[in-house]
Amino acid sequence: MKMTLKTLPDQDCPKPGAHGLYRTAAPLLLFALSLTGCKHEAASQSAEAPPAAQVEEIGGSNLVHVDGAGRFSLVQAFTQPVRTKLQVTGSVNPDVSREIPVLSLANGRVVALHVGLGDYVHKGQLVMEVQSPDVSTAFDAYLKAVNDEHLATVTLDRDNLLYNKGAIPKSQQEAAQTGEDDAKADLIAAEQQLKILGVDKNHPSENVRIYAPTSGVITAQNVTAAGAAGITYAGAAGSLTIADLSHVWVICDVYENDLANVRVGQHADITLNAFPGKTFSGTISDIGAQLDPSLRTAKVRIQVENPQHLLRIGMFATAILQGSRAEQRTVVPATAILQLHDRSYVFQPASDGTFKRVLVTIGDSLPGNLLVVTAGVQPGQQVVNNALDLENAAEQQ
Length: 397
Hints:
This protein is of the alpha+beta class. It has four domains: 55-82 and 328-396, Beta Barrel (conserved putative lor/sdh protein from methanococcus maripaludis s2 fold), CATH 2.40.420; 87-96 and 244-326, Efflux pump adaptor protein, beta barrel domain (Elongation Factor Tu (Ef-tu), domain 3, Beta Barrel); 99-132 and 208-243, CATH 2.40.50.100; 134-205, Helix Hairpins. The chain has four helices and 22 strands. It has helices at 18-48, 133-164, 170-197, 387-396; strands at residues 55-58, 61-65, 74-76, 78-94, 99-102, 108-113, 120-121, 126-131, 207-211, 216-221, 228-229, 240-243, 247-255, 267-272, 279-291, 297-305, 316-333, 338-340, 343-351, 354-366, 370-375, 382-384. The strands form four sheets. It has a six-stranded antiparallel β-barrel. It has a four-stranded antiparallel β-sheet with strand order 5-12-10-7, with no helix packed on it. A four-stranded antiparallel β-sheet has the order 9-8-6-11. The protein is rod-shaped. The two termini are 90 Å apart.
């Protein structure tokens, strides 16, 4: 039997590996169909959930969309006259008109020092004792003046008696009277010299007692025990310096550009780091006539009452100077300001349910829970009255 082998056409014969390709493509097709089903399911679930808050960055401002926008009331920015303020820094200094040096008019050696730097002393309190040769010299002059006055008195009494009896002429009696007057003048001067040196003529001592001329704090000490004290022709700064700190100076540096806003008699509010939340009142008493050539600042002196001695010499102080004239400023309620990351914002209505968050610069606080806005909002523009409530509502959606 004869067999014939026929060759099939190419289109009728499957290519090698075709069945393997079909087996691979089928699972991929099923996986793609399953993903399509998941997408449709997720889309249906998101359609049922409430819309989330949308924040879009447009032109440097934030657009915030919230539901029920009508529940957020709006207010209008307005202008109000506000006095300008200038903030400067300085330090506490003693009032030099209330600084009194403690002087010993007798030159000598300090044998006892009863007070020290920083002590509070009362007027008339013994502060030191000085051993001085001036005391013996002055007392010697006083004793001689006493003897001369006694001799002049005796002479005058005798000449008066002789003149009344006609034994001497009138001129001799007048000469005796002049001698008596001169002796009394010398005696008074000698007594005054002892008093100036601090020596009691009835109880003389080689030591001169020095007393405090006023009450206050000792802010300078130029002498120690066993040191020299007194006044010389070269001049002396004084052994001790007592300052009345019930009134002090706050000396501040004011830049040249700000001097036009400063005047004598202007009120100033003083704050110190040592007493946060406490404000002291002061008045500008002097504006320096000379500027610092390197810093271009002038020294402005503020007088401050310090009855409780809370302000201490050298304390750092901040002074807020009230301006002499009022200027119109843009004002909004304090609740309309939102503080985020050291920045200030307000919300302005943009469209239905959408508000624009605008960066602003705020100034001073005013009575009535108001804030000055120096940039970002113009008078007449509407802002949300309570910015924090709007921000919270947007975050909760």
